[in-house]
Amino acid sequence: MNNTSLKKILLVDDELPALVNMQFVLSGNPDWQLVGSCYSTALAREFMQKTPVDLILLDIEMPEQNGLDFAREICARPDAPLIVFITAYDQHAVSAFDVFALDYLLKPFDDERFNLMLQRALQLLELKQKAMNATAIQDYLQDRTAFDEGKRSPQLQQLIIKSIGSTERVNIDEVIWLSTAANYVEVHLRNRVVLHRATITAMETRLPENQFIRLHRTAIVRCDAILNLKVNADGGHHVQLSNGDEVRVSESYLKNLKKLFTAT
Q: Which keywords fit this entry according to its UniProt record (predicted)?
């Protein structure tokens, strides 16, 4: 199996013996690639800004910032990895599942339990990939239909966001960027994120022209919210936005983005 098909895993634990033990168990697993080991959430945050991760194995009791607070932070990301807590303390189990943790392993754990967790994570990631592929096909068909008909839908001025027990109007001017989330679009505003029931391609056809740009199959960004374009360590690109978010740029959309930077 080549490295491109391996799922990427990040370890975050302030105890060196725990990191070494997990590294050893992972070394014999053919489905996972260990891409990093960090002894603090600050280092993990910096690492994840440059390297995509599918699964993070996270300790809870750590100095400066505990694992639960860090998990709440990364759960807000559109590309949030699966999270498994690995800790010596069982009193955090309920809080762990409040942040949608996949699993909760108590130290010391045996190899069989560890590998069972990895198997569950792999199955969930495969299901997630199938769902994304289905959404991509749906988006392509809708996009192709719109292209064939030569039509553009009326431009949106507001979004009507329906949540449990409430309905909210959001002006398009408040939108910083949009990303896919299964059958929804995550609408990123200045200080929060809301879910809107739509596909990202359907949204693209109704956004004000010349105000938004597609940067990825899963992301559309407001042009004047882009602060800068940066090169990643792996040669890829991402943009930094006015609300502090960073969004990866697909190679197929990079040329159009560079035109935006050179436009007079």
A: Phosphoprotein
Other beta carbons within 10 angstroms of residue 171's beta carbon come to 11
pLDDT digits (tens, 9 = 90+) for 65-121: 888 889 888 876 766 788 999 888 766 565 666 666 788 888 888 888 899 999 989
Would you give the distance in Å from CA 70 to the centre of its chain? Answer: 14
CB 244 within 8 A of CB 193: no
User: 170: which strand partners?
Assistant: 159
Q: Which CATH number fits domain 152-262: 2.30.33.40, 2.60.40.1190, 2.60.40.60, 2.40.50.1020?
A: 2.40.50.1020
pLDDT band at 12 (very low <50, low <70, confident <90, very high): very high
Residue intervals of the chain classified under CATH 2.40.50.1020 are 152-262
Question: What CATH architecture is 3-126?
Answer: 3-Layer(aba) Sandwich (3.40)
> Rg (Cα) of the chain, in Å, rounded?
20
Alpha carbons 183 and 75: distance in angstroms, whole number: 18
Residue pLDDT, tens place only, 58-71: 999 888 888 888 98
- Interatomic CA distance for residues 231 and 105, integer angstroms: 36
* Mean pLDDT over the full length of the chain: 82
